[in-house]
Design a protein that fits this description.
Elements (H helix, E strand, L loop, with lengths): L5 H16 L9 H14 L2 H32 L3 H57 L21 H8 L28 E2 L30 E4 L4 E4 L6 E4 L6 E2 L2 E2 L6 H12 L9 H9 L4 H12 L6 H15 L7 H9 L21 H34 L5 H7 L3 H6 L3 E3 L9 E3 L1 H16 L21 E4 L2 E4 H21 L1
Antiparallel strand pairs: 1-4, 2-3, 3-4, 5-6, 7-8, 9-10
Helix pairs in contact: 2-4, 2-5, 3-4, 3-11, 4-5, 4-6, 4-8, 4-9, 8-9, 11-15
Membrane topology: Lipid-anchor; GPI-anchor
Pfam families: Trypan_glycop (PF00913), Trypan_glycop_C (PF10659)
Protein name: Variant surface glycoprotein 1125.150
């Protein structure tokens, strides 16, 4: 029999003992544990898309409502129809309210949208990579050591959810559909689990090098000391400080009270940001101006807003007259039921503006003005034009007053201006001369000649000033054609005639300006 040197046997024994010491002896993560982790990305992966969708929709809707407000204000300034003006004013108020509300919702959505997207992307990436690392390392079920256990604590290769978990990614497809209550509610995440003890113990499932029990400082060990480690933002806890290793998946389901995450939850930021994003409304938001106008015109509050405007602008008091006027505007300018907003939108499409913000001579339709900046320029033009009208009126009235002073005419001039026979003969101071071939044929009558002579004498006798023939007369003696009783005194009728003429001219002029 051949003898083996004792030294060689000692060497082999030492190697075997060392090899035995380096065998992995920690538990794998049980199927319920890693599946609970994988459920998180599955539940919240649409959050980035929800953030993008809500922010985009609200931003576009705010711009749409703002532009519609400006178009309605321009229409109110550019059109002369009172009913359309009142309707445009009311609809502009409501559109402005929607622009303000939508802008406020946008501001509210920004922080939770950014936070939810970042939190979701972060936790999804962490879990996916962690699970994929362990899955890749343990390869196939032919291997006797693994860190992810499947059914009956066997190798997890056959578990289909393991593959999908390691490949899960967040969705950036824009959506405004909120996360359903089956995924998130006032108590937390209903689709997830509460705390799970997740250390597997079956054959093969107790040989995970990452979770080795009772490690010591040794070059062949993954853990160099007994301690507690936490992974995946503390969702997973590994403790090898005792006689055996424990693996715990923190509570994922009941993390909130009355819609607010508890401060000790590792999913607090994710939960609070998702709940806040879910609460931001987008239902009233529209990025189509025509549809938004029709929605506003059909709003039940239009009638009340219209009555308020009519009270302020037209001075109507609450009552039947106010209601009738409001209904008239609704019928003539706003429209009802499925026709609500149609007439106003057509006027926006068909009404040209008096000022082109692009600087050329064409007059674009209100609907063709593309930017808010250009709409503001057009509206500013109308506002400044309207503001300058009082000074224009003052200057024109002064000029008119001076003109009227120079328009005092003699009786002969008055007769000459009458071209027709009947009105000429109706004036006692004039007569129509049929025998005369050339114009003027309306001449002074005998009475007119006498009055003219008398008027001339009165003018010369008063240093060029018309004699006040009626001043001081009693009411019984104050008779036409020279005099007329007005109030408590007798006044010259020619003065009253000139005054009435001047007032009628002023009234007509003011009406023309406005």
């Amino acid at each position: 029999m051949q003898h083996v040197p004792l030294g060689f046997l000692v060497l082999i024994t030492a190697f075997c003992i060392q090899a035995q010491k380096t065998v992995a002896s920690g538990p794998a993560i049980a199927q319920t544990g890693w599946q609970a982790l994988c459920a998180i990305p599955t539940n919240v992966k649409t959050a980035p898309g929800l953030a993008i969708g809500k922010l985009t929709k609200l931003a576009r809707a705010r711009a749409t409502a703002s532009k519609l407000t400006l178009r309605l204000q321009v229409l109110e300034a550019a059109i002369s129809n009172n009913d359309t003006q009142r309707a445009a004013a009311v609809l502009a108020q409501l559109a402005a309210g929607i622009a303000t509300k939508t802008g406020s919702n946008l501001q509210t959505a920004i922080t939770p949208a950014i936070t939810a997207a970042a939190e979701t992307a972060d936790i999804t990436a962490r879990i996916s990579e962690y699970i994929n690392l362990l899955r890749s390392a343990q390869t196939t079920s032919a291997k006797t050591g693994y860190c992810l256990a499947g059914a009956a604590e066997n190798h997890a290769e056959a578990d289909a959810t393991l593959t999908s978990c390691s490949a899960v990614s967040v969705s950036y497809a824009p959506t405004t559909t909120n996360l359903p209550s089956t995924l998130i509610d006032n108590t937390g995440f209903p689709g997830l689990n509460n705390q799970i003890t997740a250390a597997a113990a079956g054959t093969g499932a107790n040989k995970c090098v990452l979770h080795e029990a009772q490690p010591s400082a040794n070059a062949g060990k993954f853990h160099q000391a007994r301690h507690t480690t936490r992974h995946l933002r503390q969702l997973l806890e590994h403790n090898n400080n005792g006689a055996s290793t424990t693996i715990t998946i923190k509570a994922l389901r009941d993390v909130a009270t009355a819609g607010k995450a508890r401060h000790d939850s590792v999913l607090a930021n994710l939960y609070d940001s998702l709940m806040a994003l879910n609460r931001v409304p987008t239902g009233q938001a529209s990025d189509d101006e025509e549809q938004l106008l029709k929605n506003i015109a059909a709003d039940p509050t239009v009638a009340a807003q219209l009555r308020s405007v009519l009270q302020r602008i037209e001075g109507l008091k609450p009552g039947a007259a106010l209601e009738a006027r409001a209904q008239q505007i609704v019928k003539n300018a706003i429209g009802e039921n499925d026709k609500a907003g149609n007439d106003i939108w057509n006027k926006i499409k068909d009404t040209p503006v008096a000022f082109n913000p692009k600087g050329d001579e064409t007059k674009p339709k209100i609907a063709d003005i593309e930017t808010e900046e250009h709409l503001v320029s057009v509206l500013s033009y109308y506002v400044s034009t309207k503001a300058s009208k009082p000074k224009q009126i003052e200057q024109k009235l002064k000029h008119l007053e001076e003109s009227l002073k120079a328009t005092t005419k003699t009786m002969e001039e008055i007769c000459k201006e009458i071209k027709e026979k009947v009105p000429c003969n109706e004036n006692p101071n004039c007569k129509y001369n049929d025998e005369k071939k050339e114009e003027p044929k309306c001449e002074l009558s005998e009475k007119g000649k006498q009055e003219a002579e008398k008027e001339a004498k009165d003018t010369v006798g008063n240093n060029g000033k018309t004699e006040e023939k009626c001043t001081g007369k009693e009411q019984k003696d104050c008779k036409s054609p020279d005099c007329k009783w007005e109030g408590t005194e007798c006044k010259d009728s020619s003065f009253l005639l000139n005054k009435q003429f001047a007032m009628s001219m002023i009234s007509a002029f003011v009406t023309l300006l406005f």
